[in-house]
TrEMBL record:
Species the sequence originates in: Limosilactobacillus alvi
EC numbers, comma separated: 5.6.2.4
Domain of life of the native organism: Bacteria
Domain spans labelled Helicase ATP-binding: 269-435
Cofactor note: Binds 2 zinc ions per subunit.
Binding site residues for Zn(2+) 2: 506, 509, 524, 527
Name this polypeptide is given: Replication restart protein PriA
CDD domains per UniProt: DEXHc_priA, SF2_C_priA
Start and end residues of each Helicase C-terminal domain: 521-686
Role this protein plays: Initiates the restart of stalled replication forks, which reloads the replicative helicase on sites other than the origin of replication. Recognizes and binds to abandoned replication forks and remodels them to uncover a helicase loading site. Promotes assembly of the primosome at these replication forks.
PANTHER family: PRIMOSOMAL PROTEIN N
SMART domains according to UniProt: DEXDc, HELICc
Pfam family, one: PriA_3primeBD
Family: Belongs to the helicase family. PriA subfamily.
Length: 790
């Protein structure tokens, strides 16, 4: 914390006119001669420094990696999220620029031969690390860079990550091949074909795969060609593009009246130089996406760019597909499942201004687009828009900041807006746009609640009520599809001894272990700890140790027994771990290669499959009892979202929700699809309990492997806060242990502050963070607007 400020360095003469704001530099730091990496945030410090200045040692970049907007944004971000400024600067860069990378300088244009010999030793690339301490060479390179004659490539030190393919190069001249052709025996047809091909390709580098396709020749023939010296094999770095599926152009639809009203309002806003925020509240299947696409078109037509965030790309491949279908190559995609290389390539395309539309997950909010006209957050209520690690930013707030900077319009979309956003729309802070009807004119599917307490129990507990089973069977007969949701929020499954009540817990965390049938083991979902399934109770050695609760694998097994004819696709963290599996499974379901899609939360959002007419929720109540004031809101969202997957085309849909709490207001209102009633009820509860949106929250947390150390620190923080000038209506909850008191062998203690208007709070907490030094393993964190309290 003490070092969380800018430092002043002298620009040595050798670097005159080269250092620019937004470049990374290497500087000496502290008393020793430690060299660290830093960012240039200013080249004209307001207060000239007249102590002894150290020199910048070297430039890491030949051009800025962060633009002035990003530098300004990072200042604001550091302040409002209580983070180190430098971690905010890093948060805006793709990983490749953070990891240990080789920076290769490559020649692009014809650089004079003398220069090439001089600087590059006759090669076409050099490693920047080898020359960055040589001011003369760096000076030349910066000049060449400005003239566009060289470019920089970043390669992770772990070479395996850069995607290389084998390619071939003809190694002879046209006439040489002519001679060889005349010399080869007449019946050597393959060799002849190869020679003709090579003759046509002189001067080219062709990926081997492609060459094989084009010629129909076997790899052996190419190897022979290599042996005879007709061609050379080289390694070629393949351009990594995240989605290679061909782009189909979509059809333009005619907007309905509600959509038109929304689009008109947005069009007008995008063309002004204000930065309004719109909340588009549209029931599932009401055509929100079409509104997004039209608004993006407007931004592009007025020579601006558009940024669109989705909660989790792998969960919403359909959305990405639709944006790409409309805007084609003009779209860059940024999400966490990309490799570092792919991500960097996409980032570069954005930075160089080669694309006008960016679709991505949370951190894409930092995409270096210029002239932004529109920022969209789809499913704006999703928790994934809040980053849980430092810097703990909320993408929604960053969107508003950037919108102000660019005079851009913000569009938040959801069927179930966060209470915070809807409250703002109601007070006129945001402009409310609504799509109350489904595009297909169908009503929302009717929802039936099944009381699982009333189900007959012959031969043990079943995950399926009789009615759900009958409906599944019915769909199977008709050849229609069903979606089954297993709610996995909370920790509802565990191994327990029936004799002594012992529950098998993770040795590192205060939570129970979950059974994984496929690996025949018990796993901790927090730290990854894994152990064998116990046969005896470790406590009393009884054999009566049983698994309670259920997982997707167990449900699938049961379903296979109950409906042997049904083809089932299971989607959960285990079946989708491998890259591309999400898309693949969804595609299979879309092609009707399965009758039932069974999955966790990840199937609840955004899917648009016309053949789905039945949605079943196996356990609606899990998660309702979590010690978190947003538990009801999340359950309502989940039920509304998943219900919306049924009956999206011309056939009617139907939803069945199984529960042990049929009278709970969340389920009752979800059944009626009554967001407004839910909003009103929940707002009253929040007001009484003084929670958002009436109050803001911030969580202070201390953690240490030794419980007493963490407890002592949080106690000290609490004392300190009591003597601070907090606003009179600011409320301090705690200190208490966190509900899950221990994870990964660290103990956590927390204080939650609730406040309405506390202008000095930021200063107080920043100071507190300064005073509260992390020592040894002890950590102290401040999390504004926390999304989890567990
Ligand atoms: P939401 O995002 O609100 O759940 P979608 O945008 O997925 O809804 O729209 C549901 C379906 O309706 C999609 O298949 C979409 O292509 C289609 N659609 C949207 N707008 C129209 C329209 N004006 N006319 C016809 N079909 C439309
Ligand atoms: Zn026991
Ligand atoms: Zn654990």
């Amino acid at each position: 914390m003490q070092t969380n400020r800018p430092y002043t360095y002298r620009v040595p003469e050798s670097l005159t006119n080269q250092v620019m704001v937004g470049m990374r530099v290497i500087v000496p730091f502290g008393r020793g001669k430690r060299e660290v990496q830093g960012f240039v945030v200013d080249t004209n410090p307001e207060q000239p420094f007249d102590g002894d200045l150290k020199d910048i040692i070297a430039l890491m970049d030949l051009e800025p990696v962060l633009n002035p907007e990003m530098i300004a944004l990072s200042r604001w971000l550091a302040k409002t999220t209580y983070s180190f400024w430098i971690s905010c600067l890093y948060a805006m860069l793709p990983n490749l620029l953070k990891a240990k990378t080789h920076r290769l300088v490559r020649l692009t244009d014809d650089v004079a031969e003398a220069e090439q010999l001089n600087l590059f030793d006759g090669q076409d690339s050099l490693d920047l690390a080898d020359v960055q301490n040589d001011p003369d060479i760096m000076h030349e390179l910066v000049k060449l860079r400005r003239a566009g004659k060289i470019r920089i490539e970043y390669q992770v030190e772990d070479r395996a990550r850069a995607k290389m393919v084998v390619a071939i190069q003809p190694s002879l001249q046209f006439e040489d091949y002519e001679e060889l052709l005349a010399a080869v025996p007449k019946n050597a047809k393959a060799q002849k074909r190869l020679l003709v091909y090579l003759q046509q390709q002189t001067g080219q580098t062709i990926p081997l795969k492609l060459a094989q396709q084009q010629t129909g020749l076997s790899p052996a023939t190419f190897t022979l060609g290599e042996k005879r010296g007709w061609l050379k094999k080289v390694k070629l770095e393949q351009y990594r593009t995240p989605m290679t599926k061909s782009l189909e152009r979509d059809q333009q639809v005619t907007l309905n009246t509600d959509q038109q009203v929304a689009v008109d309002a947005l069009n007008q806003a995008i063309k002004t130089d204000q930065s309004p925020v719109f909340l588009l509240k549209g029931v599932t299947g009401s055509g929100k996406t079409e509104v997004y696409l039209r608004a993006i078109e407007t931004a592009l037509a007025s020579h601006q760019t558009a940024l669109m965030l989705v909660p989790e790309i792998s969960l919403t491949p359909q959305m990405v597909g639709r944006v790409r279908a409309r805007f084609g190559k003009n779209v860059a995609i940024l999400h966490s499942a990309l490799s570092n290389g792919e991500r960097y390539d996409e980032w570069r395309r954005i930075q160089m201004g080669l694309v006008d539309v960016v679709v991505g997950t949370r951190s894409a909010i930092f995409a270096p687009l210029k002239k932004i006209g529109l920022i969209i957050l789809d499913e704006e209520h999703e928790v994934s828009y809040k980053q849980e690690d430092a810097p703990r930013y909320q993408a929604r707030e960053v969107a508003k900041w950037r919108a102000k900077y660019h005079h851009a319009t913000v569009l938040l979309g959801s069927a179930t807006p966060s209470l915070e956003s809807y409250a703002r729309a109601k007070t006129g802070n945001y402009h409310l746009l609504t799509l109350p009807h489904r595009v297909n004119q169908q009503p929302l599917p009717p929802i039936q609640i099944v009381d699982m307490r009333q189900e007959p129990r012959q031969g043990g507990e079943s995950n399926f009520s009789q009615i759900l089973l009958a409906r599944l069977n019915d769909r199977l007969q008709k050849g229609e599809q069903s979606i089954l949701l297993l709610n996995r929020r909370g920790f509802s499954s565990f191994m327990m001894c029936r004799d002594c009540g012992f529950v098998l817990k993770c040795p590192n965390c205060d939570i129970s272990l979950t059974l994984h049938l496929s690996s025949h083991s018990m796993k901790c979902h927090y730290c990854g700890h894994e152990e064998a399934i116990p046969r005896f109770c470790p406590n009393c050695h009884s054999q009566e140790i049983r698994y309670y609760g259920t997982g997707t694998e167990k449900v699938q097994a049961e379903l296979n027994k109950l409906l042997p004819a049904a083809r089932i696709i299971r989607m959960d963290v285990d079946t989708t771990r491998r890259k591309g599996m999400h898309e693949k499974l969804l595609q299979q379901f879309g092609n009707h290669q399965a009758d039932i899609l069974l999955g966790t939360q990840m199937i609840a959002k955004g899917l648009d499959f016309p053949q789905v007419t039945l949605v079943g929720v196996l356990n609606a109540d899990t998660g309702l009892d979590l010690p978190d004031f947003r538990a009801s809101e999340r359950t309502f969202d989940l039920l509304s979202q998943v219900s919306g997957r049924a009956g999206r085309a011309d056939k009617n849909g139907e939803v069945i929700i199984q529960t042990y709490n049929p009278d709970n207001y969340v389920l009752q209102l979800a059944q009626k699809n009554d967001y407004d009633a839910f909003f009103a009820t929940e707002m009253r509860i929040r007001q009484q309990a003084q929670y958002p949106p009436y109050f803001y929250t911030v969580r202070l947390m201390a953690s240490d492997p030794q419980e007493v150390v963490a407890a002592k620190l949080i106690q000290a923080v609490s004392e300190r806060l009591k003597t601070s000038q907090l606003a009179t209506d600011t409320v301090m909850l705690g200190p208490t242990p966190r509900p899950i008191a221990r994870t990964q062998n660290r103990y956590y203690y927390q204080i939650v502050l609730k406040y309405r208007h506390d202008p000095t709070l930021i200063t107080t907490l920043t100071q507190l963070a300064h005073e509260t030094q992390a020592k040894g393993n002890l950590r102290f964190m401040i999390d504004p607007d926390p999304q989890y309290f567990m």
